[in-house]
Sequence to fold (73 residues):
Amino acid sequence: MASVQIGSDDGPACPFCVGHFNAPRQLPCAHSFFQSCLQSYISSKVENNSILKQIECPLCKQVTTPTRNDQPT
Ligand SMILES: [Zn+2]
Ligand SMILES: [Zn+2]
Fold:
């Protein structure tokens, strides 16, 4: 146990909080995040409480249309 690797055999981890998933939200680009972390990310992008039509994946910048469940409450 000399080193710690990100992305170990335990499976993917959320890049926001580096926690391991039990219920990840996967974007079309195949990157996964916690739903709550993705909502926080989206809310940081939203101005004036508007609905965000598109988001960029924070990892690969692929433009994605968020579902209604992804919108911050
Ligand atoms: Zn997270
Ligand atoms: Zn991505």
Summary: The chain has a mean pLDDT of 81. Strands lie at 24-26, 32-34, 55-56, 63-64. The pocket of zinc ion (ligand 1) is lined by residues 14, 16-17, 19, 33-34, 37 (CB under 6 Å).
